[in-house]
Amino acid sequence: MKRVKLTVAYDGTNYCGWQVQPNGITVQEVLNQCLSEFTGENIETIGASRTDAGVHALGNVAVFDTEMRMPGDKFSFALNQRLPEDIRIQKSEEVDADFHPRYVKSQKTYEYRILNCRFPIPTERFYSHFTYIPLDVDKMKEAASYLIGEHDFKSFCGTGAQVKTTVRTVKEIQIEKSGDRITIRITGEGFLYNMVRIIAGTLMDIGGGLYPPEKMKEILEAKDRKKAGPTAPARGLTLMKIQYF
Amino acid sequence: MKRVKLTVAYDGTNYCGWQVQPNGITVQEVLNQCLSEFTGENIETIGASRTDAGVHALGNVAVFDTEMRMPGDKFSFALNQRLPEDIRIQKSEEVDADFHPRYVKSQKTYEYRILNCRFPIPTERFYSHFTYIPLDVDKMKEAASYLIGEHDFKSFCGTGAQVKTTVRTVKEIQIEKSGDRITIRITGEGFLYNMVRIIAGTLMDIGGGLYPPEKMKEILEAKDRKKAGPTAPARGLTLMKIQYF
Predict the structure, then answer these.
(1) Taking 80 as the threshold, does the pLDDT of residue B142 lie above it?
(2) Which of A16, A201, B79, B234 could form a disulfide with B54 if both were Cys (CB 3.0 to 4.6 A apart)?
(3) Is residue B161 pLDDT above 80, yes or no?
(4) Nearest CB neighbour to A119, from listed B10, B76, B118
(5) Coil, strand or helix: which one is A135?
(6) For residues B215-243, b (16+ Cβ closer than 10 Å) or e, as one string?
(7) Active-site positions, per UniProt (chains A, B) (predicted)?
(8) Using CA atoms, how far apart are residues B111 and B101, in angstroms rounded to an integer?
(9) For range A85-89, the mean pLDDT
(10) Would you call A11 and B127 a contact, using CB atoms and an 8 Å cutoff?
């Protein structure tokens, strides 16, 4: 028996998110089926991040246990032959039998992409959020600076989430503008439900001039979801990578 | 009566190219229908570039004549309300009644995008060509330099094309690598059928080490389609812009 770690990229457009659920097809379900057929075993993967419906990933992580003698690094090739083209294993490797992708300390990086011009660009419609309201990136950067470090991010936690604590650490937020494209890149040790999308929605409110940048501090301190901006649409979000320590 | 020029962006994935044809739905057909419904007239647009099935555009150009009194710049808003989300008018403006998008002197810029890594990235599958063969960008740049200027591009002309002359002028070819992404950007005053895709296919052959860069000169001088590389897949190609003089 060995444990194999997969680095999984997917286009989330046609999936009801990562985690197996009764109402629709999920990335994890397709991966479990594919692995079960390939190995002849009943495989249930354990995922690192339960991304929402419509959210994309370049580097989500999943592990599974198998009796197969195939070397860990060969699973990527075998699975990519069988998976639909909106899911691709980027890497496979054998890990310690007790490695758990959610309980081992890690750092996640997300990107939220915004297309900011007069009209949408069709080829980017599934992978960025479009807004014609001109966004001031300098204001967004100033607002983002209040979020760096360890804080109670309760104002940025989606309702319905069950967590012991809403304290999290945001290590870095980079905001870059290139032509009509704005990318918000957030790295942290763990995120609350919808946290990146609520931060993105609030930064867009501030970039659009609805509030001054200092308002972000007030929103953070309020510890009240209703004070923050809207949850930005899923299509703009991509889980870029997960680093384990 | 006035003539309106449209700058048209589209995701070519689900279309049989630009030009109206009996075998499948095209961008021009959708645009003609949309314009005819909106104006109540029988509109037939004239397009600048008849892009192939699966090719994308950020800035193709089309014109049409209408009796409508609406100012030229308002058509973009009205049409974008009615078009499917894989077609978006980026700009509309009134032009001289004799402006013809193919007969007025112009310069076109195309981008051919390549994803060059071990495994495909699902979110890029419709908008770039994937190859795992490592490409040497310096060799591609050297090879591309032989194509700059006025030449007989017969070796890079798709079979079945009916043209008076295969002499064309390539003004610029830029090849950039950013991470795993390689972009070939070509600007010229006119292109032969499949010319950009055959150039891209030949540059990939050279970048992958099949021929040395100097071979490009030999291919050009042979004036023989069979000497050049394969026609690179449509999904990697985007018509970026058309500039009129």
Answers:
(1) yes
(2) B234
(3) no
(4) B76
(5) coil
(6) bbeebbeeeebebbbebbbbbbbbbbbbe
(7) 52 (nucleophile)
(8) 20
(9) 98
(10) no
Q: Give, in degrees to the nearest 5, the angle at Cα B190 between B189 and B193.
A: 160
Q: Which residues pair with A181 in a beta bridge?
A: A115, A178
Residue B110 marked in a binding site: yes
Which residues form the domain of B72? 2-95
pLDDT at A112: 98
A101 in any annotated domain: no
**Residue B85 belongs to a domain with what CATH number?**
3.30.70.580
B111 touches chain A (CB under 8 A): no
Q: Other CB atoms closer than 10 Å to residue A210's CB: what's the count?
A: 12
Record the tokens describing residue B92, joined without a space: 């509309």
pLDDT score recorded for residue A7: 98
B21: CB partners within 8 A, 6+ apart: none
Residue A126 near chain B (CB below 8 Å): yes
Structure tokens, B200: 């891209």
Based on the residue annotation, tell me whether B52 is a catalytic residue of this protein: yes
| Chain-chain contact of B123 with A118 (C-beta, under 8 angstroms) | no
What CATH number corresponds to the domain at position B183?
3.30.70.660
> What tokens appear for A194 in the block?
């919808």
Token digits for A236? 């703009």
- What single string gives the DSSP state of each residue in B25-40? --HHHHHHHHHHHHHS
Q: A120 and A192 in one domain? A: yes
Question: What gap in Å lies between CA A166 and CA A192, rounded to an integer?
Answer: 7
Q: Do A110 and A63 sit in the same domain of this protein? A: no
Residues A143 and A90 in one domain: no
Check pLDDT > 80 for residue B160.
no
* DSSP conformational letter for A225: G
